[in-house]
Amino acid sequence: MYRHAVTVVALCTLAVWIIVLGGCSSEHSGTVRFSGNLEVTDADVGFKISGRVLERAVSEGDLVTAGQPVARLEDADIRQEVAMRKAELQAARAYLDELEAGSRPEVIAQAEAAVQRAAAWLKELQTGSRPQEIASAEAAVASAAADFERIRQDFERQRALFQKDVISEREFQTYQSSYDMAQARLREAEERLSLIREGPRTEQVEQARAALREAEARQREIRNGPRAETIEQAQARLQQAREALQLSETRLSYTTIVSPLTGVVLTDNIEAGEIVAPGTPVVTVGDLHHVWLRGYVAETDLGRIKVGQAVRVTADTHPDKVYRGRVTFIASEAEFTPRSVQTTKERVKLVYRIKVDIPNPDLELKPGMPADGEIDTAGAGQ
């Protein structure tokens, strides 16, 4: 009976030690487990200017490389603007080259000829009408009057015949037109004769004097060559033309957007034909080749985790597959557990955020997937 009691006590003592040792092993286990959600580096790709979308070259799920065009705006107006700016630049450069080269002999000769013509015109006005001009104008009036009288008589005869229905209205209109033109020629000849007899008006003489002064000033400018300020103005004009062209070419480059990274199109938000404002996301591109797990660990586990440690990651969508990752970031400040990770009771606990980079060559892991991580803090290869 006594031996039986001793045996029972010994068994109970052994059970207590097993429980105690088991509890210590769990508290100081060599594995840190945590949960979180997968994330990727992504970028919204949009235009810097507004316009109508001509083409979206990629769709959701397409693989893209950094620098690959993903969409274009209609650019006909901007291309026309670029062509105009190029023409303005060419004209500004040619004008400056001409100023810097000085006046060519043929340009000087043209300026001298312009002065001679202006002087001759002024002299003619100041001299007044010559007798032969008056005689010529009088002869023109006499000739026009004789033609008009002949046509008028013929017209009167035809009008009488038309009133008697001898000729058609179409035939009569022919004589009517001839009569009107003859009358207009006579009036014009008479007005010209009147002007010649009166001689030039005062304002005509003043206009001729002004034209002569302008021609002489132009001649002096050409002979002396361009002034320094004229060349400076031409240089400024050339620089403005360069800047205007550069601005237009920059706007033209904004009509095409490219992917900023190599990855996968996560979403396409705009269709061809839609009008977009600057910054509106046309597509969202994510780097699915390198996903990362945002997880949270308790303060008691923080001391056992270091940047660079290996992490075993499993996802609910591929429960039988283990992905290998490494800790790349550990937060320096604690925060409350996010709502999306833990229960209501556990959200009041302070935790530390960690980041685990995971290679994803087969693109099996997607952003937003829940995943679990395990860090073997006691194993080798940390």
Strand content: 15-25%
Helix/strand order: HEEEEEHHHHHHEEEEEHEEEEE
CATH architecture of the domain at 31-71 and 265-376: Beta Barrel
| CATH topology-level name of the domain at 31-71 and 265-376 | Elongation Factor Tu (Ef-tu), domain 3
The CATH superfamily title of the domain at 31-71 and 265-376: Efflux pump adaptor protein, beta barrel domain
Please list the strands of the largest sheet in the order they lie side by side: 1-10-14-12-11-15
Structural class, judged by helices and strands?
Answer: alpha+beta
- In helices, the fraction of residues equals 40-55%
Question: How do the helices and strands line up, and which of them pair or pack?
Answer:
Layout: H1 2-27, E1 31-39, E2 42-46, E3 51-56, E4 63-64, E5 69-73, H2 76-101, H3 105-127, H4 131-163, H5 169-198, H6 202-224, H7 228-253, E6 256-258, E7 263-268, E8 275-276, E9 281-286, E10 290-298, H8 299-302, E11 310-315, E12 318-330, E13 335-336, E14 350-359, E15 370-376
Antiparallel strand pairs: 1-10, 1-15, 2-9, 3-5, 3-8, 4-7, 5-6, 7-9, 10-14, 11-12, 11-15, 12-14, 13-14
Helix pairs in contact: 2-7, 3-6, 4-5
